[in-house]
Write a structure and sequence with these properties.
Layout (H helix, E strand, L loop, with lengths): L1 H35 L21 H11 L4 E2 H8 L3 H14 L2 E5 L2 E4 L1
Antiparallel strand pairs: 1-3, 2-3
Helix pairs in contact: 2-4
């Protein structure tokens, strides 16, 4: 029985020594892998562009209002719907006439071509 206890203690102490050596080797291995490991560079892939919704221009807004009315839209209607002042509406109407998108039905009444 005493021999068995002695041999078990001897085996246990040898196992402890072996475990300490394994821990030392593991620490060295980690240090080497950290030193060798280079940071991975990300490759520039396709950039996904966000689709931005374009805001309609003032001329587009006026054109849509004029196109909405079959009998034509007058200055007061356009001013009420857009909130633009008279000078801006006159300039936009002039621009749309030159582009051929609207025409004058009567004085101050505009229709889609």
């Amino acid at each position: 029985m005493k021999d068995l206890k002695m041999s078990l203690r001897k085996v246990a102490s040898e196992l402890m020594k072996a475990a300490k050596e394994v821990e030392k080797l593991a620490g060295k291995l980690e240090a080497q892998t950290k030193a060798k490991a280079k940071p991975v560079k990300k490759t520039a892939g396709k950039k996904v562009s966000k689709k931005t919704v374009k805001q309609p221009t003032a001329a587009d807004t006026v054109f849509r209002i004029v196109a909405r009315y079959k009998k034509g839209a007058n200055m007061a209607t356009i001013k009420e719907k857009t909130g633009y002042d008279n000078k801006k509406i006159h300039n936009l109407v002039y621009k749309l006439k030159k582009l051929g998108k609207i025409k004058s039905e009567a004085k101050g009444v505009y229709m889609k071509v």
